[in-house]
Amino acid sequence: MKRVSTNLAWIGVIFSIASTVLLVKYYGEILAGRQVHVFGLTALFLSMISSLSLFVVYRQWTVLLNENALKTQRLAESHGFDLKGVLLVPNWTYFTFVLFWFLSFLFPEVWLFSLLQVVFFVTFLHFLFEAARHLQEEKVRLYRVLFDVEFRPIIKERNVLTVLLLTLITFGVYWLYLIVELSKEINEFLDADERTMKNLEVKP
């Protein structure tokens, strides 16, 4: 049973917070005239673990939603149901974001890499939110016709600009919350969909 790893999501969030705290401590030591590199090195190490963990989580979001969308399309086609198309999260948005993350890490002096990292991550989120919204809308329509039941949307509708604004206002706290929350929502959505497929019969 494939699901988003909430453990990895929590690891990414906790280590991100810890690395930020240590980084602040590190710069505080520098401003005080003390060269204590242990804080900086530890912050870098924790930040790397956090990023790698979250890369896995982001990939799981993409793969699981895309797999479910394709599964939904096959179900609809097998019963002659006309879907309004299948909206997938493009893989290139994820891999391009990861590529520029590594480039910005290796060449921090090249600000363009950091900018492109943000641009492609925002693009990735836009497609992810749209794919989740579209998939749930089609699920509601599909199950109403085939199973004569109401399928309740679980993944909340989100706008990438609103998420970006809230993340900036809260200095990143909202995004850390959203990582765990969205992972849970996707898992709950997949669980509900699986129960529906197992327990309901298609109307003749």
UniProtKB/TrEMBL annotation:
InterPro entries tied to this protein: DUF4234 (IPR025328)
Keyword Ubl conjugation in record: no
Pfam families named in the record: DUF4234 (PF14018)
Domain annotation DUF4234: ranges: 158-197
Keywords attached to this entry: Membrane, Transmembrane, Transmembrane helix
TM annotation in the entry: 7-27, 39-61, 81-104, 110-129, 160-180
Signal sequence, renumbered to the chain: none
Protein's name in the database: DUF4234 domain-containing protein
Organism field: Thermotoga neapolitana (strain ATCC 49049 / DSM 4359 / NBRC 107923 / NS-E)
